[in-house]
Design goal:
This protein is an all-alpha fold and 184 residues long. The chain has one domain. It is 69% helix and 0% strand. The chain is built from 10 helices and no strands. Helix 5 packs parallel to helix 7. The chain is globular, with a radius of gyration of 16 Å.
Length: 184
Amino acid sequence: MFATIDSVEDIHSFVFRCLGEVAENRQGVDHLVASYFLDVHAWFPIVDGATFERQLEELWVTPSAETCLVILAMRLITRPSSPNPVAGMADRHYLSIKSILSLVQSKTPLSIPLLQAQLLVALYEFSHSMPQQAYMSVGNCVQMTRAFGWQTAEFWNRGRHCDPGPRAMKLCSILWWAIVYVDW
């Protein structure tokens, strides 16, 4: 994986190819996404279904590293636990997702999908008894919200001139409270 980091392949194609290796085909990706929405999303709804469906359709025409990363994080959080109780950080799927997440964060601008992927990874870490890693991941989430301006009253003020709209504001609020939940 690290040999291709400095290659001429762009980050979007690289992560799309990684997703293809995990899910094998479009049906596999659809199955991963459906598993997430039927299971984890029911109690941790940090991905807007309608927006994500659009992103998923666009993925097959124009690969997006951020969308692929969210799908990979969905797979990480929905796959069955390892029978080995000491797997934790030795889990190769977890290590791959963490590496890809760091790579995508270094090569793309901050975005809501990056925050969603980081939050799913933090949830995985917390639920697999990795508190130090979860703490660092939640800290990255908080730093992203600062970069987005969520720490200011102006962002949450509905009367401002560049309001992102009620649907986007609802998602921002859900993401903020999800960060608080994982951090708690």
